[in-house]
Amino acid sequence: MPKLTVDGIEVEVPQGATVLQACEAAGKEIPRFCYHERLSIAGNCRMCLVEVKPGPPKPQASCALPAGDNQEVRTDTPMVKQAREGVLEFLLINHPLDCPICDQGGECDLQDETMAYGKGWSRYQENKRAVTEKYMGPIVKTVMTRCIHCTRCVRFTEEVAGGEEIGAIWRGEDMQITSYLEHAVKSELSGNVVDLCPVGALTSKPYAFEARPWELKKTMAIDVMDAVGTNIRLDSRGRGILRALPRINEDVNEEWAHDKTRHAVDGLSHRRLDKPYVRREGKLVAANWEDAFAAIVSAAKKAGDSVAAIAGDMVDCETMFAAKALVKSMGSSLLEGRQTGMDYDVTNLAAVNFNTTIAGTEEADVILLVGTNLRWEASLVNTRVRKAIKRGAKVFAIGPEVDLTYKVEWLGNDLSLLGKLPKAVKDAFKGAEKPMVIVGGAALRNGHGAALGLVKTLGLVKEGWNGFNVLHFSAARMGGLMLGYAQKGGIADIVAAKPKLTFFLGADEVDFKAFQDSYKVYIGHHGDAGAHAADVILPAASYAEKPGTYVNLEGRVQRGDRAVFPPGDAREDWTILRALSEALGHTLPFDTYGELRAQMFADAPALANEGLASFEWAPPSLDTKAEGEIAYPIRDFYLTNSICRASPTMQRCSAELVHGEEFAEAAE
């Protein structure tokens, strides 16, 4: 490990570290525009200049210079100060003076570093260069005259997102960053280039001219658009959520978020349920809480103990626990969270968990994907597979061929392949130290037993390594399974039981025709399919409007806070269930959110501690026969839930990026 001094401070850094990293280890701030910890080194902005001895008496780019023994690095000499001032003067020669109208204002690296390291005045008297705007789709707004050619966006799309959709054309002063043929960028991770851009060249189109960062209240939350459990920050002003940004969590999402996470938040202010409704003479009529509860009480008297609860894909654990307690107090145990009809075995949660962990995916050396379009079902797991490939991993897949942004050897589209894998696949797994299988929802329903059979066949479970993984794509799924929201035959068991009263907790993907004879109570936040089919609607809070516990696909328990209050008469779900229980004569034994959580922890101790829950590996013995073609469950990445379907931005993304509709810009 090299030892060197930085401004007289001795530091020791790992072999292969750069001088810039050594400076940071010594506690020195090094300005930079092009360097980013998660991207390859470009070395083209020259802002990170330092003086290094032994070596020529000139400033050197610390991001591209390997750290070595006995180096003397200076970050505070007159030469370094003058060199950084010169770099900034060059960058600002063509940069437009439009900070007052730039959306990056207040969180702009160029502003901050000019204040800290710049001269404060310019000697340039000539005309500034101007660049035409580029079209990058409904997510990214461009003002390319501001671009300083750091190429962060280019490297991100190539290395992380996996599509060469953004690049540079021409040379020198004529160089321009653009999308391919100026078409919309189709990557579901495209919004990350806005965070990466150190100036205002790439900004968020839906957030344009909305607010300044110092006006916003910042709330730590958990994303519910998929089962990855992306850590996010919700920025709000008044009672509106203006944007969602990713937080750094190396074990889950690193510092990325897909476009649904970022931009579906405008759906929180559209099609909202803000008052109770009761169906009278076939029509839903606005009512007050007393009338709505009275209608449910009347239905409950006729139903007796014939009661069920079905949880949707975005529900928090506290809501599910409160509903479970209410249904149990009424004498029933009919609970289900797999609303679309899945019916896999849940006697051992490790057998339906992502056991390798999201971060552990990077270490795999052979990966078999079974019935999963990983790019749409878990975009940030897909980026980890890309990193594994860079380390030499080989990827096989069973299912309909799709573009996963990396090389895949497709074996076919028949579950029977699980019992007769080609010799090349078996040979690859035979020599693997860390083999991995990812089973998607499309294969889980009919191929769970056959997939578990691969544990022995391919040697997936070893000392310190479990390569068997089930990939869920619903934020509420693992939490629901831990709370008992699973019948042996799935939702078909509930349909067969013919409940006379059914509570739908934000469940919009259910086949409501199967519940025609049941009195349907919908507790949710959007006027989607569930509300249209309901006999009573009780307006509830979205994930941004209540604190909650969520368990991601790897069994990681995480908690989010409330950013804003729900609109109108809408209330937090657990308070609705608590008030309803009193009206039904089955008062639940908790009056505060703290009491509710304490009882939930007693019922499911694994939910008490944040972090990975521990599931004992004891897979069930299931029928290993599997056959039939695979059909991926997600047909439109941008419209997977009620919030997305209410979002104008997601509707535009779906129309343009999935269905190929063309939209003319204003200038056209």
Short structural summary:
With 668 residues, the protein is α/β, with parallel strands linked by helices. It contains 19 helices and 29 strands.
Describe the structure.
It is globular and about 90 Å long. It has 19 helices and 29 strands. Helix content is 27%, strand content 18%. A seven-stranded mixed sheet has the order 14-13-26-25-24-15-16, with helices on both faces. Strands 2-1-5-3-4 form a five-stranded mixed sheet, sandwiched between helices.
| Helical fraction | 25-40%
Q: Helix count? A: 19
Number of strands: 29
Structural class: alpha/beta
- Taking all residues together, what is the mean pLDDT? 94
- CATH topological fold name of the largest domain: Rossmann fold
CATH class of the largest domain: Alpha Beta
Largest sheet: 7 strands, mixed
Radius of gyration: 27 Å
Poorly predicted ranges (pLDDT <50, ≥5 residues)?
Answer: none
Write the SSE topology.
Blueprint: E1 3-6, E2 9-12, H1 19-25, E3 49-53, E4 59-61, E5 72-74, H2 78-93, H3 109-117, E6 140-142, H4 152-161, E7 166-169, E8 176-179, H5 192-196, E9 202-204, E10 217-222, E11 231-237, E12 240-246, H6 259-263, E13 277-280, E14 283-286, H7 289-303, E15 307-311, H8 317-329, E16 334-336, E17 366-370, H9 374-377, H10 379-390, E18 394-398, E19 409-412, H11 423-430, E20 435-440, H12 441-457, E21 461-462, E22 465-466, E23 468-471, H13 477-482, H14 491-497, E24 501-505, E25 519-524, H15 529-533, E26 536-539, E27 548-551, E28 556-560, H16 573-584, H17 593-603, E29 611-612, H18 642-646, H19 648-658
Parallel strand pairs: 1-5, 15-16, 15-24, 17-18, 17-20, 18-19, 20-23, 24-25, 25-26
Antiparallel strand pairs: 1-2, 3-4, 3-5, 6-9, 7-8, 10-11, 11-12, 13-14, 13-26, 21-22, 27-28, 28-29
Domain 4Fe-4S Mo/W bis-MGD-type: 216-272
Cofactor: [4Fe-4S] cluster; [2Fe-2S] cluster
Keywords: 2Fe-2S, 4Fe-4S, Iron, Iron-sulfur, Metal-binding, NAD, Oxidoreductase, Quinone, Translocase
